[in-house]
Amino acid sequence: MTGLLPEPGLTGLFIGTIPPGLYRLPPAETASRVMSLAADADWRAAELPLAGVTDKAGFLDRCATALDFPHWFGHNWDALADCLMDLSWWRDEAKVRGYVLLADGWEAFRAAAPKDARTAEAILDEAVDYWLESEAPLAVLLH
């Protein structure tokens, strides 16, 4: 099971005292604060709003739309893994210190589709591990 983002929280993640990982964001945190702190720390941030998502198809559709996946995204678990381990669709010319993906509404999705959420979480965790040693790592926050 994914653990809660340890203290000092978001600040620690963005300054590097907490390693990038797959974390549950404390409920009191907000998407706007994540986005603001990420921008201030030169991290590229994206929000994946999961309100109303109740199954695999909905999750993958929301990923494709909200994250602006490339046209080749195949709307399956393997394609999700491919996009998260490529990130060329997310990169731009500006140099960033890292990438953060905020999955907002995760608990409701997990409650509605526990098996799909476990699969998605495993893929997200693999992507975090893949980028861990890179110059610009990936962190995923479940909220």
Average pLDDT works out at: 95
Order of helices and strands: HEHEHHEHHE
> Major sheet: size, sense and barrel closure?
4 strands, parallel
Helical content, roughly? 40-55%
Spatial shape: globular
Radius of gyration: 14 Å
Beta-strand percent range? 15-25%
Q: Please give the count of helices.
A: 6
Work out the number of β strands: 4
Distance between the termini: 14 Å
User: Unreliable stretches, pLDDT < 50, 5 or more residues?
Assistant: none
Specify the oligomeric state.
single chain
Biggest β-sheet: strands ordered side by side in the sheet: 1-4-3-2
Q: What does it look like?
A:
- With 143 residues, the chain is α/β, with parallel strands linked by helices.
- 42% of the residues lie in helices and 15% in strands.
- A four-stranded parallel sheet has the order 1-4-3-2, with helices on both faces.
- The longest helix is centred in the last third of the chain and has 18 residues.
- It is globular, with a radius of gyration of 14 Å.
- The model has no long low-confidence stretch (mean pLDDT 95).
